Amino acid sequence: MTMKHFLLIAGLAMTAVSCDRLLEFEPGDVILAEDAIQDADDLQRLLVSTYDVLANLYGGRVQIINELRGPNFGAPDNSLDFTAVYNRETTFFTGINGGAYTDFYYAIYRSNVVIENFQFVSDLDADEQLRLEAEARFVRAICHWGAVKLYARPYGYTADNSHAGVPLRLESSQDPLPRAAVGDVYAAIVDDLNYALLHLPATNGVYATQHAARAYLAQVHFLMGDYSEAAALASNIIASGEFSLDQDLDRFETDLINSETIFGIVSQPNDFRSSWFRDNLRSDNTSSPQLAFSEDFAFFMSLSGAGDARSQWYTPGVRALCNRFNNKEYFNIPLAHLTLMHLIRAEALAETGSDLETAIGDINAIRDRAYGAGNFPLSLTSTAEEVRDAARDEYRKETAGEGHWTDQLLRRGAMGESIVIRNAPWDCPGMSLQFSNSENTVDGFVLNEEGGCL
Hints:
Elements: E1 6-8, E2 30-32, H1 33-36, H2 40-58, H3 61-69, H4 80-86, H5 95-116, H6 126-151, H7 182-199, H8 210-223, H9 227-240, E3 261-265, H10 275-281, H11 295-302, E4 314-315, E5 321-322, E6 333-337, H12 338-352, H13 356-371, H14 384-398, H15 405-414, E7 420-421, E8 424-425, H16 437-440
Helix pairs in contact: 2-5, 2-6, 5-6, 6-7, 7-8, 8-9, 9-12, 12-13, 12-14, 13-14
């Protein structure tokens, strides 16, 4: 009997995102799939469990890890794991990167089990099977993408993207795998997201939709330097009229799904989904939170002047404290949102030198919200380079704390720009996290170079 006939349920004791039925297997159980999956409801619960792991990852943990690698956060207060990531000195003993790596592959494993076990279900119609597979492949794509960005050099690091990525797991086997080439990992991600785009529903509650797949494809193509495709995908979402820019500058709503959210994590009072942000960044409940913005980020924001409403997101000082998550015990976390789509489209159009009028309109929609309508517009006669630079500035401001900016710096470095991140080159040893100790025990598995970025 092959491994795909077994269902391994990992020990993650969190409820699923907006799920009214919990996964009913005990942590650590290994169960025959033909016993565990007997009807469509069993498959649905297993699918929801993949979102459960995704929420555990993106409830702030992955975002914080990514910010710690970049220039937006200063040195952590006293966390050894955070400090290891910040110093770019992670090893396979560093708990935070090993835990994230394991969870990425928990979600991937469960997604694969969903995809492979439709044969055990007799009450599943064709449309439901397509939806289930589309959602499973959506989660699988997000997790492969999250993993390859953290544990490998960025897309474009080598001309043919043959450099080592992460294991590419497209079936539920637990057999050891080598690191696949980054190009192959990205190809699989795009394939999964394209499948999801074709077969996901237009509306799906808090779960993945066609626009969610489209929003992730826009982000993936943007990092790949495929700017025309990224702009087209973002334009489709913007033109749909289904989302609107939130005028109060707070996408992290407590009780409502924010009007900008295309896909995100829903948090409730008892599930601690947003606790990574709350416990490590809130400045209203401690005088010295674990994490704060860097002097570099505070100086960057100061250039905007007091008229920029986003200046309320931090308090200047030796440690520029983060105010963005204050006065909230829990809140929803947007992962793909309309502001991202506007700024991706703006920079993508500037990179191609096409339709600068639309790109300028995107930037001015963001600036009007931050400064008040008409107070700090980008000139309609701006050059492509000026539009690109403005889009980048607004991107860094708007996504502060969301974990996106480091990816953009690495994209630009891989595309040939001279990028320095906290006094070190963008491609120095340690920028990629070290793998989990589980991979260290696999013969022939090539670990990342260690040594920091001194």
